[in-house]
Amino acid sequence: MVPLAKSLQRRKSLYEQTYEALRQSILEGMLAPGDRLIETQIAQQLQVSRTPIREALRQLQQEELVTADANGWLRVATVSASEAVHLYNCRMALETLSVSEACNQATPTQLEQLALCVAEAEALAQRSPQSDLGQQLLALDYRFHHLIAESSGNQCLVSLLEQVFSKMMLLRLQTTRQNPNVLEVRKEHQDIYQAIAQQDPETAIAAITSHLTASKERVVKELAQIHGNPL
Questions:
Q1: Of 26, 43, 76, which one is at a domain's C-terminal end?
Q2: The HTH gntR-type domain covers which part of the protein (predicted)?
Q3: Which of 42, 76, 110 is the last residue of a domain?
């Protein structure tokens, strides 16, 4: 049986609920990269007809969270090493703008939330085994970067980053299952936060660039080891 995040509540259209349930299950790792999505199993678990399921799967294909394999079966998307490079390059362009604007626009409350993310990452690092913390670290990393984008005050930027972050979540799920240390970003997040708190755009841009470059190298190396994908 395909594991899904939740059963449906009859408050939105069946398509919307089916889409949200599937998307949540993918981004939380309950449906892993490469898992086959079988309409009959999904219909049985969610107690809906196959029509809203097909509509939801089409939407997820448009978002590149679901892909068709060589046999035409729908599966949760996987990310190759070369795709990972492209994703990180997009993030680099968007997040340098994000931290620069956050230096001038972040509110005291938003700075407190960023500081809390840094503190939580430090606390998690003291726990063991690290292999049990992958999902928590992923959620914390996402929250930190999303908070920076929100702190920029630029909603268009937030929307663009959301599209990249969804695909990035698949990528990080692939790599952290094998090596949770791929998310060893405490010092890098601390440097970014300090630059934003000090309203220093030049240092913030340098810090986010260094962080994403190092993260890209860790993730691409891990992907190459898992899948043997050439760059």
A1: 76
A2: 12-79
A3: 76
